[in-house]
Amino acid sequence: MITGNIEQLSKSQIELPVAIYEVLSAIKDLDFSVHPDGQKEVNGVIFKTFTANTDLPEKRTPETHKDFIDVQFVISGNELAEFGCLGDIKPNMEKPEDDNYFYDRPDLDLNQMTLKDGDFIIFFPWDIHSPLCHKSVISRVRKIVAKVPVASL
Question: What pLDDT does residue 106 have?
Fold first, then answer.
């Protein structure tokens, strides 16, 4: 997992794989006042822009992916993202057709990080994650999730 803020993207370039840096650069160049919600694919990367409400962590299901890296960028709002090490934990539900693998929360030891406007977080296949959480107050979050093929690295 790697995290940062889009305003310091040039400083983060040294630690980011080229494909991920290019995705974040494309996101940084967007004008969010006119950028619509929806999904589009560019050079094999799927960009999903949407607005959602956060929920309590116990109501969110932690997940991983095998074929894609999640590059999550908060356009506006605040969310709590939970994350942890996959290790030897096996999913309790698999949806390989969607590249989604879900986990029982009691089996996990998850950390938490608050993300706000301009923050990004990158989840690799070995990072269990549960975004769009809150501790007590629902927040409306607008974000982009870019699905970067692992093969592009």
Answer: 87
The pTM assigned to this predicted structure is 0.95
| Architecture of the domain whose range is 2-152 | Sandwich (2.60)
| 83: Cβ contacts below 8 Å, ≥ 6 apart | 1, 110, 111, 112, 113, 121, 123, 127, 128, 129, 130
d(CA 81, CA 83): 7
Instruction: Report helix, strand or coil for 25.
Output: helix
Burial 63-81 (b: 16+ CB within 10 A, else e): bbbeebbbbbbbbebbbbb
| Mean pLDDT score, 2-19 | 95
